[in-house]
Write a structure and sequence with these properties.
It is built from 7 helices and 4 strands. It is an alpha+beta fold and 182 residues long.
């Protein structure tokens, strides 16, 4: 199971104001580990919901509880200016990269920067630097891409929405959603 994360923000920390990505629970675990490693000064990081060895996709209560826990984790994370400066957080929230590619990009071991990875959300292949600059200058709107959340209820600024999604039904209608200000 994966979760769709929709982000709407007017924060200066984000260059892309609207994005949508899908992440699995193990990717949330990776993010928390990276945030902990990158923010040694911060003593309290938000907690993730506990991993349940008996988690069932057929148990609506377990799914709802996990989604609420992940939602809370994201909301608390986005309240910290120290965490908002972390490139792994931006890649997690606004790119389609795998864990390995997020790590490589954050460490500067890719041909694209963090900003390019975020800008290319939804684009299968990274464009050359010149093509990316040309594309950005032509559109003039960094928010208009295939990652926009289409639900009109998500008009609250600085909003994170977490939706349950399924691996075998990519692009299905949302079964559950959580939407709150952050």
């Amino acid at each position: 199971m994966d979760y769709e994360i929709c982000l709407h923000t007017d924060s200066v920390f984000f260059t892309k104001k609207i994005s949508r990505v899908r992440r699995r629970f193990r990717e949330f675990v990776w993010l928390r580990q990276r945030l902990r490693a990158n923010s040694m000064l911060m003593t309290q990081l938000p907690q993730l919901p506990p991993k349940n060895p008996f988690f069932s996709l057929n148990n609506a209560q377990q799914i709802s509880e996990r989604m609420a826990g992940l939602q809370s984790f994201l909301e608390q994370t986005l309240q910290s200016p120290l965490l908002l400066s972390d490139s792994c957080l931006h890649l997690f929230l606004q790119s389609q990269l795998s864990i390995a590619k997020m790590e490589a990009c954050a460490a500067g071991r890719t041909r694209y920067s963090v900003a390019q990875a975020v800008q290319c959300c939804g684009i299968r292949r990274f464009l050359s630097r010149e093509a990316l600059q040309k594309d950005q200058s032509v559109s003039g709107d960094s928010d208009s891409d295939s990652c926009e959340c289409k639900d009109p209820e998500w008009q609250i600024q600085e909003n994170v929405a977490l939706n349950k999604a399924s691996d075998d039904h990519v692009g299905t209608e949302q079964e559950q959603s959580i939407c709150s200000s952050s």
